[in-house]
């Protein structure tokens, strides 16, 4: 989700439009796993990630060329943006790769564990004692992960490597946490457009270089399903979906929008069932609910931060 700024007081929703915008945004973002699965039919995960970020970065770069960036980063801010961009590249690369080894629902659920990782950083690095609620969330989240990873029996595209898929998705969630922590350091000085334009561009360059190193070529120009998946991820999930989340902040509080993002794994699971016939065991569903509850506990009371 892009930069959540507090909605002006006194501005209330009018009719059903705001709720439809927020719900549509969650559906677009949650559908990214479906689009990625189609894209992976024509190219490797790094190439798919590079194509997705490159398209989004080019759109933002074109907007910056027309309107200009509102601020010029300092050397320190530039270093933090570079770190954030590299972390964003790792986030997308690891998450999209996980879809080759585990189900869409499990992948999106595990990559959404970012609040657990950022809270763990606060506890271990910044020495901020966890509250009782956070300790309970960690315990419940750990149990939920065991249930999801250990007891899910949905057959992935490459069977026999479900733990690898889970590890990649969790790594993608942790990498997004690094992005958030780096961006938090520059939020007070740089605006959303500067941050997103810079980090998307850096992430695209990192992924293009990684794809070349791994000898992963983009899909064939004739592979319509793969390119449709990439374009849908870049335009619908990234540019439109995340922009709509920002627009929803005109009517809803940041906390409400943050909690609404918990619907992404749910919508992803429903879409994966409808499109690919992916099913989850009852134990995996129970574990997923525990993980979502843990994430919700970590989000409660947290200050809003930038996200892609």
N-to-C SSE string, H for helix and E for strand: HHHHHHHHHHHHH
Integer average pLDDT: 79
Q: What's the total count of β strands?
A: 0
How would you sum up the global shape?
A: globular
Count of domains: 1
Structural class: mainly alpha
Give the helix proportion (percent range).
over 70%
How is the main sheet built?
Answer: none
Q: Quote the beta fraction.
A: under 5%
Specify the number of helices: 13
How far apart the termini lie comes to 5 Å
Topology summary:
Layout: H1 17-30, H2 32-39, H3 45-67, H4 75-98, H5 104-111, H6 114-124, H7 132-151, H8 162-184, H9 192-213, H10 224-248, H11 254-260, H12 263-276, H13 282-299
Helix pairs in contact: 1-10, 1-12, 2-10, 3-4, 3-9, 3-10, 4-8, 4-9, 5-8, 5-12, 6-8, 6-13, 7-13
Concise description?
The protein has 308 residues and is mostly helical. Helix content is 70%, strand content 0%.
